[in-house]
Amino acid sequence: MKGPLFYAKILLFGEYGIIKDSKGLAIPYNSYQGALKMSENPSDVAKKSNQNLLKYYKYLSDLKTDLVHFRLDELKRDIDGGMYFDSSIPQGYGVGSSGALVASIYDKYADDKITVLENLTRDKLLNLKHIFSLMESFFHGKSSGLDPLNSYLSLPILINSKDHVEPTGIPSQKQGKGAVFLLDSEITGETEPMVNIFMNKMKNEGFRRMLNEDFAKYTDACIDDFLHGNVKSLFGNVKNLSKVVLSNFKPMIPMAFHQIWQQGIETNAYYLKLCGSGGGGYILGFTEDYEKAKDLLKNYKLELVYRF
C-alpha cells in the first residue's frame, strides 16, 4: 500500500493575521511531500510515525462532530499492520508537515469525502476547512485548517476572512532576477508556544491597533500585488511588512536573525518575513535580485520557491 502524495505548503502572506480574520495567501510547495505507507521491515523513524498514528487514531475516535465520519476500524487495522506516514516535510519548519498528514488521513479514511474533482462551492470549502481544523487541532492545540486544505487541494488558496476562502490562480513564474526563497534557521520552531505569545500580545491595545492597521494593510496590499503581478509595488509593501514584523513580532524571530533581518531592510537587497508561526524553521525571503541576496546570505541555506 502506498497512498497518494500530499505536498508541503507555504503561507506567503497572512501569518497571525488569519487568526484575527484578515487576508492570507497559501501556495503548495512541491519540493516536500508525504504519503501513507506500509512496511514489512520498518525503520526506527517509521516505527515512531506508526506510534504517533496510533495516538492520532485515539484522538479521531474521541472527536465529536457530525461534519465527518471516518472508517476507524480500517484505520486501526492499517496502523496495527505497520502503516506510517513517510514524509520529507521538515517538522517544526512552518511548511505544513501535520497538514499533509491530516490531508492523507482524510483522503483515505473519510466517508463521503469532498473531492478536488467536484465543484468546490464556498460551503464545501468552508466545510473542508472546518473538518481539517478539528483534525489538525491534535497537533497544535488550535488550527485554522488551512494547511491541510492547501495540501489536500494542492491549489493556491486565498483567505479573504475566516468564512470566505477560495482557490485562486497565481501568476506563472518568469525567468527574472527576482525570487521568493526560504532561509533555513536550522532551529525547530513549535507552533503552540508562538501562538500563545501572540494571544498574550493581543491583550495589549497598541498591539491590536498595529495588527488591524499596519499589519493587515500591508499584508492585504502584498496579496493584491502578488496576485496581479505588480512586482514593483509588491516589494515596497513587503519592505513595510518586514519592518512591522521586526518591530512587533521579535519573540517569533530567532535572536540570531534580528541583524540580517535589519540588514535586508537597510540594503534593500532582500526582505524577510515569518513563514508560519516563527520561532525557528524557515524564514521567508523576497528579493528583486536573487544572486545578490544569495551573496549577502552566503552563510545560510536558501531554497528557491518562486521566480519573478
Automatic annotation (TrEMBL):
Highest taxon, organism lineage: Bacteria
Matching InterPro entries: GHMP_kinase_C_sf (IPR036554), HddA/FKP (IPR001174), Ribosomal_Su5_D2-typ_SF (IPR020568), Ribsml_uS5_D2-typ_fold_subgr (IPR014721)
Keyword Lipid metabolism appears in the UniProt entry: no
Keywords, sorted A to Z: Kinase, Transferase
Statement: the UniProt record of this protein carries the keyword Hydrolase: no
GO molecular function: ATP binding; kinase activity
Annotated protein name in UniProt: Mevalonate kinase
